[in-house]
Design brief:
Radius of gyration: 22 Å
Helix content: 10-25%
Structural class: mainly beta
Number of strands: 29
Shape: globular
Largest sheet: 9 strands, antiparallel
Number of helices: 4
């Protein structure tokens, strides 16, 4: 596993927590320092290093990796639209389509074979590589964390023609511990595979609990949800954390910003949540979640990620959130997607 050091006169200790006053000082030092950063039209970052060489970090490769990860996760099934049918995903999720439930966009009833595309996401690593974090949007516009019971992409086509679910179809998601507060979250105006997702609660959702029988004869708790939408769906609940909260900033190595990298936070003890720092402050050159919703005293792991030259460039740092927290990432390593997946899934 390779290690790459990015030298920055402002980056002293990745575990330090700075006050707002020190944040301002940090920004002033950045302006005085000898390292400059420029963005061109292709979203490549050009950094002048101390030896006067030029390091270029492209953004297209990272963006493509997200779409590629989603495409690779698609499972393909075929059902008969007239008789309906049930499909079972690799992680045990079931989709049940009743007879004569699908129509073309013009309203004509579909018959014959139908192609079903299906993605099921239960792990933080899949959320990260596919950029599908558990960020939920409140009615007031605040972006806060939600706890997922599974994220899903579902689509139905016939001979390349998009279909519509005129009759609800059933989603059954297995769970180790049934949570009665789980409900359905949907993204706003997003029915494509490649769109950016922020989850919003579906006020009309109806989730019930029960059990499903596994292939070996055992039984597993499960959520049952009737759906009528194709595209992305998430089973979630709002995360209740009553302690005081703060705004958090993350300073990443020179040459990286929101065009070619991302920052996530995993909460220790919450394997079904992954927060995403959805804002990049161009004045401070730092990532932030910008709503001040990070709980003080929470034990977390910050995850920085990019893709360069076919490798995942990453850093994982443990921290306890303090008031006006700034996390500084100084050293990155490289690995494969499989290696990063193992590291993320091994976090507490």
């Amino acid at each position: 596993m390779k290690t790459t050091n990015f030298n920055d006169t402002n980056q002293k200790n990745s575990m330090n927590v700075y006050s707002v006053t020190k944040l301002i000082a940090l920004c002033l030092l950045s302006l005085i320092g000898m390292i400059s950063c420029e963005t061109n039209d292709d979203a490549d970052i050009i950094t002048e290093l101390p030896d006067d060489t030029v390091q270029i970090f492209g953004g297209l490769e990272y963006a493509n990796s997200i779409i590629e990860a989603r495409e690779n996760a698609i499972q393909h099934f075929t059902i008969d639209a007239t008789t309906g049918g049930t499909i079972i995903g690799n992680n045990g999720t079931q989709l049940h389509f009743p007879p004569n439930a699908l129509t073309f966009l013009g309203g004509e009833l579909v018959s014959g074979d139908v192609a079903i595309e299906f993605i099921e996401i239960y792990s933080r690593a899949d959320m990260l590589t596919q950029n599908l974090p558990t960020n939920g949007k409140r009615d007031n516009g605040d972006i806060v964390s939600i706890i997922s019971g599974g994220e899903f992409y579902i689509n139905a086509t016939q001979d390349g023609n998009q279909l519509v679910a005129e009759t609800p179809f059933g989603l059954t998601a297995p769970t180790a511990d049934f949570d009665p507060e789980m409900t359905v979250f949907l993204p706003e105006d997003c029915d494509r595979l490649d769109c950016d997702v922020v989850w919003e609660e579906d006020e009309n959702a109806n989730i019930q609990g029960g059990e499903i029988q596994n292939a070996d004869g055992t039984w597993t708790s499960a959520y049952f949800a009737p759906l009528t939408n194709f595209g992305w769906t998430n089973l979630d609940r709002w995360w209740a954390y009553e302690d005081p909260k703060t705004l958090v900033y993350v300073d990443v190595p020179e040459g990286f910003n929101e065009t070619n990298s991302a920052v996530y936070v995993s909460y220790d003890g919450e394997p079904n949540a992954l927060a995403f720092f959805d804002t990049y402050d161009t004045d401070l050159d730092m990532f932030t979640e910008h709503y001040g919703q990070m709980p003080i005293g929470l034990e977390v792991h910050f995850i920085f990620v990019s893709v360069q030259d076919g490798d995942y460039v990453y850093a994982i740092q443990s921290a306890t959130i303090g008031t006006d927290h700034i996390e500084i990432i100084t050293t990155t390593q490289t690995t494969t997607e499989a290696g990063l997946t193992a590291l993320i899934n091994a976090l507490p």
